[in-house]
Design goal:
486 residues, alpha/beta, seven-stranded mixed beta sheet, five-stranded mixed beta sheet, 13 helices, globular
C-alpha cells in the first residue's frame, strides 16, 4: 500500500503543482484520489510523441487563456462571467494572457518558471507574421476554426478542435523565441484562478499602494490582504495603472503563485476533505493538458519538490513601448538575448537557434568590444540601475554578463583580471570615469562593475525601457513572507 500511496502523491503533485501553476508540490493524497484526479481531465493532442522518461529534461508551457469557455469548450456560466468582470460569453479573443515555461532539469531538481511578457513582439510560427506573442494562439485557432466551420463543425467540438490548433501555434512560437523544446503543455482558462483560489479558501497577497482599475475591476487597498474568486483574477490580470504595465502584472502572477504554494502546503488545506475535493474539481474545470503526458512517469521528477524549489524569472526585454505597424505598443525583445538568458537560467540546456532568431540589434560601439563580457552589480540601492548601465555598455558594443544586486557600497569600481587594466579603464570611461581595480579571480576578457551610492546614472535610458535581466529587487518589502508588489 505504501508504493501506491507514494505514486498517488506524485501524480497529484504533477496535476496540482504543474497544472495548477506548479505550486502544489509535497502533497499527500490517498490512492483512492488518483482516479478522481485523472479521470475526466481534459486532454489535447498538441505535443508530438516523445520520451516520457523521468530522467529527461522537461519544459512545460503553461498558458492562461483569456477564454470564456471551460476546459471542455462549454461557455462559462453568466454569473461567473459577471463576477470575473469579463464581459459576455461572446467577448474575449482567446489570447494567452499568461505564458510561463517551467523547466525541470534532467533527472529532477529545482524548477525554473520563466515568464514571457504577453505583449512580446515576435515572429509567430505558421507564417502569421510578426505580432505580439499572446496572439499566436489566436491566429492559429482562428485559421483552423474557419476551416472547420466550412466543414460544418460547431459547438463545443469546434471550440476544442480549434483550440488545439491555437495551442500548437503558441508552442511553436515559444520554441522559436526561447530555444527550448516544449515537452508538455498545460492551459488554464480564464476562470482558473477563480476556481482554484476559491477552493483553497483564498490566497494572501500584499500591495505597496492602493489600486483601482476599471478595466480589470481591481479595487484593492494597500498592504496585506486575502484574495479569492473574482478578486484573485482581478489581482493577476490588472496591468492598467501600474508603473511598469505588463511587467508589473508578471510580478503579481509570480508572487500569487508562490503565495498559493504556501497556502496549499500549509497544515489543514489538503487534510480537509471538502477543500481537497473542491481543489480537484477546480483543476478539472479549468485545465487542459497534452494527450501524450504520462503523468505517472513524469511525477517521478517532482518527487520531493516543494514551493521553495521553484525559481521565478522573467525573460529580458529591450523596451516596453515599442511602436508596431498594426499591434499598437508592444514589448520589444531580442530573441538572441532571450535565448542567452534562458541558457543561463536552465544551466545551458537551451541551444542557440540562429535559424529562428533574427540578427541582433546593431550596437553603436567597436565590434572588438564584443569579446569583453561585463557583469554589473547594483550596490547603490537604486532600483533598475544595473540594468540601465548594462544596457548602456551593450549599446557601446560590450557583451552583457550577469546583472544582479549586491551589498551596498559608496563608490563605483570596474574590476579586471591579469593584464587588462587598459580595457577596464575603457569601461570606466564609458561610465563617467569611475575607479578601476584588479581581481585575479576574473578570467581573461571578463570584467565586473560595482555601482556605488555615489554613481550618477547618465545613460539616457528611461527606466521603463531598460532591459529587465532578472535583477533581484533591492530590499523587497514583505508582509509575513508575502512579497509586496505594485
Amino acid at each position: 500500500m505504501r508504493r501506491k500511496t507514494s505514486s498517488a502523491l506524485r501524480v497529484a503533485q504533477v496535476l496540482l503543482a504543474v497544472v495548477s501553476l506548479l505550486v502544489l508540490g509535497g502533497t499527500a493524497f490517498a490512492w483512492s484520489k488518483l482516479n478522481q484526479i485523472t479521470d475526466g481531465l481534459t486532454r489535447s493532442d498538441v505535443i508530438g510523441s516523445g520520451s516520457n522518461s523521468p530522467m529527461d529534461e522537461q519544459n512545460i508551457l503553461m498558458v492562461g487563456l483569456d477564454t470564456r469557455t471551460d476546459a471542455e469548450g462549454n461557455p462559462l456560466p453568466e454569473d461567473v462571467l459577471d463576477q470575473l468582470h469579463a464581459g459576455g460569453a461572446e467577448d474575449g479573443g482567446d489570447t494567452t494572457d499568461t505564458m510561463i515555461v517551467v523547466h525541470i532539469p534532467a533527472g529532477g531538481g529545482n524548477a525554473t518558471a520563466i515568464s514571457i511578457p504577453r505583449d512580446s513582439y515576435v515572429q509567430l510560427a505558421g507564417k502569421f507574421g510578426k505580432h505580439k506573442i499572446n496572439s499566436a494562439y489566436t491566429y492559429g485557432q482562428t485559421a483552423r476554426k474557419n476551416e472547420l466551420k466550412a466543414q460544418g463543425e460547431s459547438g463545443a467540438q469546434l471550440e476544442t478542435d480549434s483550440a488545439q490548433a491555437g495551442a500548437k501555434t503558441a508552442i511553436e512560437t515559444v520554441q522559436q523565441l526561447t530555444g527550448l523544446k516544449i515537452t508538455h503543455y498545460a492551459a488554464v482558462n480564464l476562470a482558473g484562478f477563480y476556481y482554484v483560489s476559491q477552493a483553497v479558501g483564498g490566497v494572501p497577497v500584499c500591495l505597496k499602494a492602493p489600486v483601482r482599475d476599471s478595466y480589470s475591476g481591481a479595487n484593492f487597498a494597500a498592504g496585506p490582504q486575502n484574495v479569492a474568486g473574482a478578486q484573485a483574477l482581478q489581482f493577476v490580470r490588472q496591468r492598467h495603472g501600474l508603473p511598469n504595465g505588463d511587467l508589473d502584472r508578471i510580478k503579481r502572477q509570480q508572487v500569487f503563485m508562490a503565495s498559493m504554494a504556501k497556502t496549499i502546503l500549509s497544515a489543514g488545506t489538503l487534510t480537509d476533505p471538502g477543500k481537497l475535493d473542491a481543489l480537484i474539481g477546480a483543476v478539472k474545470k479549468a485545465v487542459v493538458v497534452d494527450t501524450n503526458w504520462d503523468l505517472l512517469a513524469f511525477a517521478q521528477q517532482l518527487h520531493g519538490m516543494s514551493a521553495g524549489s521553484i525559481n521565478f524569472v522573467t525573460v529580458p526585454v529591450v523596451s516596453i513601448t515599442l511602436k508596431t505597424p498594426n499591434d499598437g505598443d508592444a514589448v520589444q525583445v531580442d530573441p538572441q538575448q532571450v535565448q542567452r538568458f534562458v541558457r543561463e537560467v536552465t544551466g545551458g540546456s537551451a541551444p542557440s537557434s540562429s535559424a529562428s532568431a533574427p540578427p541582433p540589434s546593431s550596437a553603436a560601439g567597436d565590434s572588438a568590444l564584443a569579446s569583453y563580457v561585463v557583469d554589473v552589480r547594483n550596490s547603490s540601492g537604486v532600483d533598475g540601475l544595473a540594468n540601465r548601465v548594462a544596457d548602456k555598455l551593450a549599446a557601446a558594443g560590450y557583451q552583457r554578463g550577469s546583472v544582479t544586486n549586491s551589498a551596498t557600497r559608496r563608490t563605483s569600481t570596474v574590476y579586471y583580471g591579469r593584464g587588462q587594466r587598459s580595457q577596464a579603464e575603457g569601461i570606466a570611461e564609458k561610465l563617467g570615469g569611475v575607479a578601476v581595480a584588479s581581481d585575479s579571480s576574473l578570467e581573461k576578457d571578463h570584467f565586473r562593475v560595482y555601482l556605488g551610492q555615489k554613481y550618477s546614472d547618465d545613460s539616457g535610458v528611461h527606466p521603463a525601457s531598460a532591459p529587465v535581466i532578472a535583477e533581484a529587487p533591492a530590499a523587497e518589502i514583505t508582509a509575513d513572507g508575502v512579497t509586496c508588489v505594485n
